[in-house]
Write a structure and sequence with these properties.
The complex is a heterodimer.
Chain A lengths: L10 E6 L8 E5 L5 E3 L4 H4 L30
Antiparallel strand pairs in A: 1-2, 2-3
Chain B lengths: L4 H11 L3 E4 L8 H11 L8 E4 L9 E4 L5 H7 L8 H12 L7 E3 L8 E3 L5 H4 L13 E2 L3 E4 L12 E3 L3 E5 L2 E4 L6 H12 L4 E6 L3 H7 L9 H9 L3 E5 L6 E3 L4 E7 L5 E3 L13 E13 L4 E3 L9 H19 L5 E8 L4 E6 L6 H10 L2 H5 L3 E6 L7 H11 L2 H4 E8 L12 E9 L21 H13 L2
Parallel strand pairs in B: 1-2, 3-17, 4-12, 19-20, 20-22
Antiparallel strand pairs in B: 2-3, 5-16, 6-9, 7-8, 7-11, 9-10, 10-16, 11-14, 12-13, 14-16, 15-16, 18-19, 21-22
Helix pairs in contact in B: 4-9, 7-8
The chains are: A mainly beta, B alpha+beta.
The structure holds zinc ion.
Amino acid sequence: MKCVRCLTDNASKVAEAPDGSKAWEVYVCSRCNFVWRSTEEPEVIDPEKRDPWFQLADVDVDDILVFSPVPPLRK
Amino acid sequence: MEESGLRGFLKKLEKAGQLVRYTDEVMPEPDIRLIGRAAVDIAAGNTGPAVLLDNIKGYKGKQLALNVSGTWANNAVMLGMDKDTPLKDQFFEFARRWAGGSDGELKWVKNPPCQEVKITKDINLYELLPLFRVNKYDAGFYFSKPAVITRDPEEPGSVDKQNVGLYRIQVQGPDTLGIQVLPFHDGGIHLRKAEEMGVALPVVICLGVHPVVSLMASAPLQYDKSEYKYAAAFMETPMNVAKALTADLDIPADAEVVLEGEFVPRERFVEGPFGEFPGSYSGSRRQFRIKINTVTTRKNPIFENLYVGRPWTEHDTLIGLNTSATLYFQLRETMPEVKAVNAIYQHGLTIIVATDNRFGCYAKTVAMRLASTPHGTSYAKNIILVDGDVDPFNLVQVMWAISTRVRPQKDVIVIPNTPGMPLDPCSEPPGVGAKMIIDATTPAPPEVSREVRMVENLPDAEPYQKILMDLQKAAR
Ligand SMILES: [Zn+2]
């Protein structure tokens, strides 16, 4: 399934409303870790309506800045 | 027996008229965000209530608490004071308790309430907890008020070096968390050591704890000081802790929800953005990941989260007075002329210090001292100095001091190119900034100033406030 943020085909359903109401489902993208619920506002879950500032469509996730670099292993 | 933990505190809030139950059905998004926003917006962060919701669509029956530490009225209840207590009086009570330091007592209990329910299979946090997107463009559903507990992997037996920290956490999968821990955080030191050793660091995340535990978790305590012992000293009662099930970590015995797991060593994963306390979104970064293997809860647990975003929010209230008290004591070590410190604005990006002038221009040296404390080095961007008899928590008085004392050509000083706070949206490049000092104190000799007599303060008028307020209550 297509992720609404990075637009790759890495999203899948991970949860349903636990009270059995089928009120919504939750989706996760395994590439950019974006998470959304099926009932959220269009500006959040519709790629056409999302603010482009927050999209990760043309970004290589391995290039994203690291705050805490992995330190060298002790010998 | 009086209930402890978050539940006990909610009872106290309810008794003080500071807890409301929201029983109408709401959507996880955007309704919860709007209710959290509204609760703190009432009277600009002063009198709004905590909110307990139990009718969230899809999560029917699950309980969510918002705005628990959100307002000064709730903070007063935490301090055992009347909810109408002025902020300056709350500050002095806070500072008195804070001065109790790290000498509190811990009591280890067996079969704690937080382990009444145990889940080790098919963990799905999206279904277990009433999660919601805090701000519209957050990367997902966040824990904004977790207590994250780790130990120093080189000294795993040390309770004092055990850390309880408040770090933002994104639920990135049914049993998977993304977490921002920065290298200078105590938890960051534990993580660096574990990764150098090539081992997975055990971690426990507690959700729904007494507000004093959250308070200590968000305070910049020294590396070898126990947040729990500080919490016990602050509450003036021993702190009940229990052992986690899967690791030698201590947890608040009455926590509502406990997530146990391990950091994934030597890998980073995309996390963010998240609406942060300066009122701006952080960017996407690659951060640490945690895998959860065990969840324990109380029966019918209350999930607690806080709304953070455009200030004023609960985050500001939560960290406001501990930031202020820490700086107050650091300044007073060598500068007893300092009367009070108000560092509640954006974690102390703007700080107001009330101080007497020991001699001419002395206040400016107070500002320089403040700017070189550990916290002030990157925070303390705008420093406002007022006379010792001005209440720095009363902005009407502060503006009066600025209006009538400041000679802009002498009293406003900008120090360019200093350390800055990366989350400050105008720190450019992130981490570089400047300091501004506004000296609104009355000049003292040998500095010369115009001969003028200010109208005297009337402290004797204060008791009449209570009389008038009681009369006003009776008149309703
Ligand atoms: Zn994605």
